């Protein structure tokens, strides 16, 4: 059974940076893709960063709301992804979930319904 464990998160002032990580355990083959999805109070889940292997290359996708500020990298040997969040804004405050797709095709990057495994979530709070 695949398990995703997140680390990092916490509180930071606006303009600051935070790095997260997510490690997958219990895997017997590489995921099709991994990503980060956030949910703010009273709002629906929003995919913010996505990484996958396509045609021998690594491809990333970002939500417009974080493009230019967030990046995502992957260490396939460690089954770990590393999102880096820079120039944080108060509206980035949310619970951030690591997610991944094993054994299924993900047609739409960043779409939360495209992932079939989820971490427990980690809180990120940005104060003004």
Verbal overview:
This protein is mainly β and 128 residues long. The chain is 0% helix and 53% strand. The protein has strands at residues 3-8, 10-13, 18-25, 33-39, 46-54, 57-62, 70-75, 80-85, 94-101, 117-118, 122-127. The strands form 2 sheets. Strands 2, 4, 5, 6, 9, 10 and 11 form a 7-stranded mixed sheet that branches. Strands 1-3-8-7 form a 4-stranded antiparallel sheet, with no helix packed on it. A hairpin with a 2-residue loop joins strand 5 and strand 6.
What percentage of residues falls in helices of 4 or more residues? under 10%
Radius of gyration: 14 Å
| H-E string | EEEEEEEEEEE
Distance between the termini: 40 Å
Number of helices: 0
Poorly predicted runs of 5 or more residues: none
Bulk shape = globular
| Tally of strands | 11
Mean pLDDT: 93
Q: What does the largest sheet look like? A: 7 strands, mixed
Main structural class: mainly beta
Q: Classify the beta-strand content into a percent band.
A: over 45%
List keywords for this structure.
single chain; 128 residues; mainly beta; seven-stranded mixed sheet; four-stranded antiparallel sheet; 0% helix; 53% strand; globular
